[in-house]
């Protein structure tokens, strides 16, 4: 293990002393903006949502469009402006605006969300794999636990190979397991209709609007905001782009278009062929592919597409594994929030000790999740809590953007959001809406009334959210600080020599 | 600070980490992944059990269409879609219903909207989905119907789909 900071001038520039006399500048393997775009697609997109939203037929367009306008667009544009001016991602932006305490809270909110994510995601991987080889395995706790533990630790090993490996595999996963299957679904849906078959979902104009069922409809619409979360996460790797101020906004706009297409079009295609009553809750997207491929007489491709979808999920997981933990490492080193043991890096500059200990926790959760029905049945509650915590990060991000525009108007920015204040207000209000809706008890909650549910979620959010950063701050040690704060530095101008143009 | 770190380390003794391994460094990793994927594809192709699409499957599909119509639920306009995905035994719907862990996965899937962790928030459960699944279970694997009904008796269901 060594002590050089990832994303630092050393690693960004890639100057390496190969001999005792002459430092030699080696070529840095930057991530291309296309690969970066696919990393974001890998993080945000999934075909898992297609059957869920296909249920609503034509209304799924609106169910995706409204959240896209009020949450995705503000999130995308604000991230683009902030990342084009300050490297380091959310921790750096919030630290710049409000100081390290809230910077730590912001990155912790992003990191905390992943704690319960990996076991759930890998359980889904296990069930998809079981669908391919033997569906009855999906009910085996042992099988699920083995898949979660083996795949997670394999992902840690892969992450240890450095960002090039992570970005390459996650973008490959997005192409293989999300974009190609999405194109196949859409193509088959179009062919089905062109063959003259009636659509399973009604295609009348009034079907563009979802049915109104009171608070449940609001929950459906507002929870869809969360489909688009994560756009900002990869900003922590922005220094790995060759010209971040120019390329990151391009990345954000390209990923915005791809994400909208991948969410909306496959959902419509599924709704054309599979009616609501036959959408399988247990098999999800695999059942949709079985229906599609069965109809077109290519059922033998179902296991192949199953493995492709697994590849996409694992690609997304790799990106999540490397993202928030990097932010936590960076602020930990700059402010002395985490012990030196967790700050150590492997020879690729990756924070292996953080990932390894997260792996220990994930393995424990996996065992509890797989073998104790009470845990597995209540697992969604932990996900609700961590989602609420994540939303706190968005609240900080939107206020940060406004404050930094006001406090540092002359800071060179590669991209300027038009009408930033309005955009941030829209994003902030949407986030508050999503936060409030998070306290509405869902169908799965049977253990008491609304008050009990609200208190349960509030307690969990308090402990896992602000509670941990407060402890880290309380027990921080001056000698744990192993890097100088980057706050107030000249960002890209100073770190990699690329000039940051002002304005869009 | 970073420059100091570099200067303090004996030159040439500690190689400075580069966050990116180059293509050659990752050759072994890519080879291992390639072999693993190939093996899994072969296993998948061999092990995957296709739904049986024969005369019995078509008869069952017709029966399902009748049950769905009788219960006022949306019916697949194309019989081939039903018979090819549900086969003679109801496919995965019948193989998976009624287990604790599957219930948990069901919870996940009810909530899965996107690819990111925070996209996993529970959604209102649509009644037509549950009633449609029950119709499939009633036709293909009626012995599992009681467990399925018992599970969803705890759920509050909603009508969010516009007819």
Task: List how many beta strands of chain B DSSP finds.
Answer: 2
| Major sheet strand order of chain B | 1-2
The CATH topology label of chain A is Amino acid/polyamine transporter I
Please state the CA-atom Rg of chain A, rounded to the nearest Å.
Answer: 23 Å
What do you see in this structure?
The complex is a heterodimer of chains A (504) and B (163). Chain A is an all-alpha fold and 504 residues long. Chain A has a single domain, classed as Amino acid/polyamine transporter I, CATH 1.20.1740. Chain A is 66% helix and 1% strand. Chain A contains 19 helices and two strands. Chain A has helices spanning 9-14, 33-44, 49-54, 59-85, 90-98, 100-115, 117-133, 141-159, 163-194, 215-223, 244-273, 284-295, 302-335, 340-343, 352-371, 373-407, 420-437, 450-474, 492-495, and strands at 15-17, 23-25. Chain A starts with 8 loop residues before the first helix and ends in a 9-residue tail after the last helix. The model of chain A is unreliable at 1-27 and 492-504 (pLDDT under 50). Chain B has 163 residues and is an all-alpha fold. Chain B has a domain at 55-158. In chain B, 56% of the residues lie in helices and 2% in strands. Chain B contains eight helices and two strands. Chain B has helices at residues 2-8, 27-47, 55-70, 79-86, 92-96, 100-111, 127-140, 145-152; strands at residues 125-126, 157-158. Chain B has a two-stranded parallel sheet with strand order 1-2. Chain B is extended. The chains are: A mainly alpha (504), B mainly alpha (163). Chains A and B meet through helix 1, strand 1, helix 2, helix 3 and helix 7 of A and helix 1, helix 2, helix 4, helix 5 and helix 6 of B.
């Amino acid at each position: 293990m060594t002590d050089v900071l990832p994303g630092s001038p050393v690693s960004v520039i890639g100057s390496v002393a190969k001999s005792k006399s002459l430092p030699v500048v080696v070529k840095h393997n930057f991530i291309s903006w296309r690969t970066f775009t696919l990393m974001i697609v890998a993080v945000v997109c999934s075909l898992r949502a297609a059957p869920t939203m296909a249920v609503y037929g034509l209304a799924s367009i609106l169910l995706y469009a409204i959240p896209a306008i009020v949450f995705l667009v503000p999130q995308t544009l604000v991230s683009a402006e902030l990342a084009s001016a300050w490297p380091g991602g959310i921790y750096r932006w919030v630290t710049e605006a409000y100081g390290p305490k809230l910077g730590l809270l912001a990155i912790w909110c992003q990191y905390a969300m992943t704690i319960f994510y990996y076991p759930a995601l890998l359980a889904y991987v296990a069930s998809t794999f079981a669908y391919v080889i033997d569906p009855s395995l999906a009910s085996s706790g042992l099988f699920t636990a083995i898949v979660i533990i083996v795949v997670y630790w394999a992902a840690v090993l892969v992450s240890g190979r450095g960002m090039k490996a992570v970005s390459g595999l996650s973008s490959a996963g997005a192409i293989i397991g999300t974009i190609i299957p999405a194109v196949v679904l859409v193509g088959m849906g179009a062919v089905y209709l062109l063959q003259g078959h009636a659509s399973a979902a009604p295609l009348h104009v009034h079907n563009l609007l979802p049915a109104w069922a009171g608070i449940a409809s609001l929950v459906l619409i507002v929870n869809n905001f969360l489909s688009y979360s994560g756009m900002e996460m990869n900003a922590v790797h922005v220094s790995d782009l060759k010209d971040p101020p120019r390329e990151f906004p391009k990345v954000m706009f390209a990923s915005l278009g791809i994400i909208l297409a991948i969410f909306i079009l496959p959902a419509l295609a599924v709704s054309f062929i599979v009616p609501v009553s036959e959408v399988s809750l247990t098999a999800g997207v695999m059942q949709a592919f079985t229906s599609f491929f069965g109809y077109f007489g290519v059922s033998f491709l179902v296991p192949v597409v199953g493995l492709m979808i697994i590849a996409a999920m694992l690609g997304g997981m790799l990106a999540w594994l490397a993202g928030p933990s990097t932010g936590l490492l960076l602020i930990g080193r700059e402010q002395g929030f985490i012990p030196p043991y967790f700050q150590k890096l492997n020879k690729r500059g990756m924070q292996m000790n953080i990932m390894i200990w997260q792996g220990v926790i994930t393995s424990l959760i996996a065992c509890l999740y797989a073998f104790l029905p009470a845990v597995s049945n209540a697992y969604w509650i932990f996900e609700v809590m961590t989602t609420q915590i994540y939303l706190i990060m968005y609240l900080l991000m939107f206020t940060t953007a406004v404050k930094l525009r006001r406090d540092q108007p002359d800071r060179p920015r590669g991209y300027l959001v038009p009408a930033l204040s309005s955009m941030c207000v829209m994003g902030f209000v949407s986030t508050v809406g999503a936060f409030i809706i998070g306290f509405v008890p869902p169908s799965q909650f049977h253990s008491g009334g609304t008050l009990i549910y609200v208190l349960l979620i509030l307690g969990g959010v308090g402990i896992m959210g602000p509670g941990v950063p407060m402890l880290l701050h309380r027990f921080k040690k001056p000698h744990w600080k192993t890097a100088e704060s980057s706050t107030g530095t000249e960002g890209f101008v100073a770190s990699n020599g690329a000039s940051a143009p002002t304005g869009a | 600070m970073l420059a100091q770190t570099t200067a303090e380390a004996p030159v040439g003794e500690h190689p400075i980490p580069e966050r990116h391994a180059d293509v050659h460094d990752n050759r072994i990793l890519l080879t291992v992944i390639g072999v693993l994927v190939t093996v899994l594809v072969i296993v998948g192709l061999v092990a995957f059990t296709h739904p049986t699409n024969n005369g019995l499957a078509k008869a069952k599909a017709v029966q399902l269409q009748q049950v769905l119509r009788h219960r006022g639920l949306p019916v697949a306009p194309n019989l081939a879609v039903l018979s090819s995905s549900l086969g003679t035994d109801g496919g995965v719907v019948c193989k998976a219903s009624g287990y604790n862990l599957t219930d948990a996965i069901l919870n996940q899937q009810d909530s899965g909207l996107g690819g990111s962790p925070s996209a996993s928030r529970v959604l209102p459960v649509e009644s037509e989905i549950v009633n449609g699944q029950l119709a499939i279970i009633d036709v293909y694997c009626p012995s599992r119907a009681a467990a399925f009904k018992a599970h969803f008796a705890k759920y509050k269901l909603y009508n969010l789909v516009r007819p």
